């Protein structure tokens, strides 16, 4: 944990919000279909989880379909998200990389083994995020699609 700086630590905690809620299939289907050119499934994905994702999100799925982001305890705000990362069951690349990268892996392991630490730190991180301030047309850029300025 010592090597993880404060900013990275907040980021990891915030990503823990993916322990509840839904995601549309198009947010992650690049990992289960035609991943890069040489292999079809992201090799960091757990095999069983990858096949479950494929059955819930077949090719050309209705774009309105959304699935649980936490496959084990989707209605509980708990540290299962971090335990899932240890098993290759992070839904997004940005989730799984937290366990693959040696800079964030120790933090993932700490939160996976101690739910109280996760809860306390999540409260601090999301409160900070809430104080970042709201941008409007005068001082910022309001996007209808987050990926396009
Ligand atoms: C550093 C923290 C976080 C990271 C890196 C992160 C990353 C992501 C990524 C990459 C996606 C896929 C969507 C896309 O690519 O457009 C996503 C989806 C989502 N995230 Fe996060 N997230 C974070 C924090 C949060 C928080 C704090 C919440 C809720 C309080 C949240 C709720 C969601 C939801 C509901 C979706 C699904 C959206 C959809 O399918 O339309 N995330 N997140």
Topology, pairings included?
Layout: H1 6-15, E1 22-24, H2 47-56, E2 66-68, H3 80-86, H4 93-100, H5 105-113, H6 115-130
Antiparallel strand pairs: 1-2
Bound molecules: protoporphyrin IX containing FE.
Protoporphyrin IX containing FE binds next to helix 1 and strand 1.
Fold and architecture overview:
This protein is mainly alpha-helical and 149 residues long. The protein has a single domain, classed as Orthogonal Bundle (Peroxidase, domain 2), CATH 1.10.420. It has helices at 6-15, 47-56, 80-86, 93-100, 105-113, 115-130; strands at residues 22-24, 66-68. The protein has a two-stranded antiparallel ribbon with strand order 1-2. Helix 1 packs across helix 6, helix 3 (80-86) packs across helix 5 and helix 5 (105-113) crosses helix 6 (115-130). The chain starts with 5 loop residues before the first helix and ends in a 19-residue tail after the last helix. The model has no long low-confidence stretch (mean pLDDT 91). It binds protoporphyrin IX containing FE. Protoporphyrin IX containing FE binds next to helix 1 and strand 1. Its cofactor is Ca(2+); heme b. Ca(2+) binds at residues 19, 70, 73, 78. Its EC number is 1.11.1.7. Residues 1-17 form the signal peptide. It is an enzyme of class 1 (oxidoreductase).
